[in-house]
Amino acid sequence: MRVRVRGGAHHRVVVVGGGQAGLALSHELVARGVDHLVLERESVAHEWRDGRWDAFTLVTPNWHCRLPGYAYDGPDPDGFMRRDEVYRWVRRYADTFDAPVAEGVAVTRLARREGGGFVVSTSAGVVTADVVVAAVGGYHRPVTPAWAGALPPGVVQVHSHRYRSADRLPPGPVLVVGTGQSGTQIAEDLLLAGREVHLAAGRAPRVARRYRGRDCMTWLAEMGVYDVPVAARGLAKRESTNHYVTGRDGGRDVDLRDFARRGMHLYGRATGVGLDASGAAAVTFAPTLAADLDHADAVAESIKDDIDRHVAAHGISAPVEARYTPVWRPDEEPSSLPVDRLAAVVWSVGFRADWSWLGPLAGAVLDDEGHPRHVRGLSPEPGLAFLGLPWQHTWGSGRFLGVADDARHLAEQVVAGGWAGPEPPAGAVSVPAGAVGG
């Protein structure tokens, strides 16, 4: 159910964010009879509609789509929903349990409340809560490099978050910077549209779409890889780039070497705007292409090694497949690309977190690098929690496949009234756990 914010109202829990993480927690709170309010700055699940390109598909099989009390039950469990299908699927979820969501309401500041709990300032008024859960993920502000400003004004620049299709860019060659999941898929989208594409590669790994008769991500789920806690892998994992692959046209590998064979121009890491050998302004590149292509292939092959060991250890009957053989290698490492040859640049270099709305509590709950400090979502500030972060507890935490477990855990902590987050940093103001009760 859609609700309005009542200024001055008090709630047991306020959930900030109406995406799949916030909705998953709302479902668990409804099931436990806990009074709560979900605040969504835009509209429910809007990022699935507004933050993806037209041909976007999931890269995980549809059967991975599991939220509390709600799982994909369509006709193609091993397929990959397109953008609008995912959006509708998540929107329907909110309706299945009448999630109390206030849409179009931005949280502007969070502060401690005298006597316990929190004061939540919003664009629709002020409410208070015993518990606040930030379910806004970790990708907030699109990033472009500082040197983007050195490109001439005639070159159109768009972040992958705003890219929609090839025909919305001006005619002419396009440079895509970054080879994570978005960058590689957008580069292919442009290539399939017949555009001249230049791609600046990075260190991102890749994974084969299928191996030994099954989707690789189905193998990984069966092997328990998505359940491995971040504590077993080290906190540096939360900075890792996801493996690139695509669900387009039923799913296939993304092989940059094959792109090159089909006419795409590949480069190493983009380093800035300088001068080429002729003295013309040009985007410059580091000589990293060959090494990065080899690295991506090595990761993909290592995953196949893991699958082979799993198959052998469990006596699984699975067809044997030939291993990957590189279909193209660079003859040289191009060092520059004249800017006057470019019509547009698509930046796919990530996002920066924005926790400014945490206000005076930010110092206590963020580390020196700006990452939330938490234990399974529980922050050092009793009553303040996080949900839906990449690698929050496991590799599956930021995905449909794993967010349900994290939501269930937080809901149980809310009901129990305890708080076992990390110790607050030296000098931080801490409030006794008893202040969270009620």
TrEMBL record:
The UniProt record lists the keyword Oxidoreductase: yes
SUPFAM superfamilies according to UniProt: FAD/NAD(P)-binding domain
Entry keyword annotation includes Oxidoreductase: yes
Pfam families hit by this protein: Pyr_redox_3
Keywords assigned: Oxidoreductase
Top-level taxon: Bacteria
InterPro entries cross-referenced by the UniProt entry: Auxin_biosynth/cation_transpt, CHP04046_FMN-dependent, FAD/NAD-bd_sf
NCBIfam families linked to this entry: MSMEG_0569_nitr
Protein name according to UniProt: MSMEG_0569 family flavin-dependent oxidoreductase
Native source species: Cellulomonas avistercoris
